[in-house]
Design goal:
Helix content: 40-55%
Number of helices: 7
Bound molecules: 4'-phosphopantetheine
Strand content: 15-25%
Distance between the termini: 53 Å
Radius of gyration: 16 Å
Shape: globular
Oligomer: single chain
């Protein structure tokens, strides 16, 4: 089906979904590389109402929009509910996920297979994370930020500054 879409529709639209709380250099690396492979890449920011993220979905979308402003075929949107429903809504044929280490694989495979059962026309492709970001996650970034560590290798300064400010405000309100 994917090949059919490539040949017949010629336009390949993919979704790169995630929580992005906040976006890291690892995510940005995947976004840049995926944007070169597909015609249009939609970064889908999950608005998960059952979780309490550090940043609101509006903030996460804004931070991502600022970080991808130099990539003309990348669009940032938030979504709720099932990823495959969002994929159908925006008419995307592909889901892109980054794979860091073998520890990611089990969860990613389960998610890809679930999505395939739910929506056989939407395929998942994996990009292996660049080695320099193989250790990095939003959780690691926040953990280091909590203890006042150097964040410069983890995300652009505007994002790490926002994390530091958010953590400071949260501590002040306790
Ligand atoms: O960056 P994350 O938190 O690893 O991203 C996970 C995400 C957003 C891709 C995943 O939780 C998701 O797709 N959630 C939407 C709900 C859904 O479709 N679940 C079924 C697939 S298991």
């Amino acid at each position: 089906m994917f090949l059919y879409n490539c040949v017949v529709n010629s336009m390949v639209r993919a979704i790169y979904p995630g929580s992005f709380d906040p976006v890291t250099y690892g995510h940005l690396d995947v976004i840049k590389r995926a944007s070169k492979i597909v015609d249009e890449l939609i970064v889908g920011v999950l608005n998960n109402k059952s979780k309490t993220p550090l940043f609101s979905v509006e903030n996460r979308v804004k931070m991502l929009n600022d970080a991808v402003s130099d990539l003309p075929n990348v669009k940032v949107m938030s979504f709720e509910g099932l990823l495959v429903d969002f994929a159908k809504k925006v008419d995307a044929q592909l889901i892109v996920r980054g794979l860091r280490a073998v520890t990611d694989f089990e969860y990613e495979l389960q998610m890809a297979q679930t999505n395939r059962v739910l929506a056989p026309d939407v395929d998942t492709v994996f990009l292996t994370t660049s080695l320099e970001y193989a250790y990095l996650s939003s959780t690691i970034l926040k953990e280091v930020a909590h203890f006042g560590g150097d964040l410069s290798k983890f995300a652009p300064a505007e994002i790490t500054d926002a994390v530091i400010e958010k953590i400071r405000l949260t501590a002040d309100n306790k």
